[in-house]
Amino acid sequence: MSDPSSANALKPRASTYPRSTPMKSTGRYPAPGQWFELGAYLDQTDPALKKAYFDAPPATVPGSALPLIENVMAHFPMRTYEHKDHQRWRIDTTSTAGDCNQWTLGVREALIKQGIPAGALRPIYATREYDGAAHLVLGIETDQGTYIADQLYPLVTPWEKVPYRWNSRLVSGLQWERLEP
Length: 181
What we know:
C8orf32 fold, seven-stranded antiparallel beta sheet, 5 helices, 24% strand
């Protein structure tokens, strides 16, 4: 595990980041194996949450919900490093250590429990432009467009203003889509 303060020193300021690549669908994409593993895990631990995760139709939330989302995000530790167990997706809302997968799924679960429709909360695989690392963020579909909740930023941000190359995202249930590189 790397020192978070040294990771911060390597990251450019948000204002110097290049804009993200377009988030344009290029068709269906197989669901990541971890998504199926998460389903099996939820079968055993929280069947009601599994139903919310896997049976949610696409939805949007009003832009006025963004402050609630940021309030929920504030209860999750921000991370500037990647945990090495990125192959396993688990929901852990109590851990003070974790990676982008745990953070994204934990925030998603907390938002679902706050009444935000699961279909408006879409995990998105990306590649960080500044270091080439794979990264999972939470896309929030609003009536004002797609916003990104990310463990590396304290505020939700319009998708086009974060420095990522978009790879794939959840559509609904087990359907994912490939995004134009």
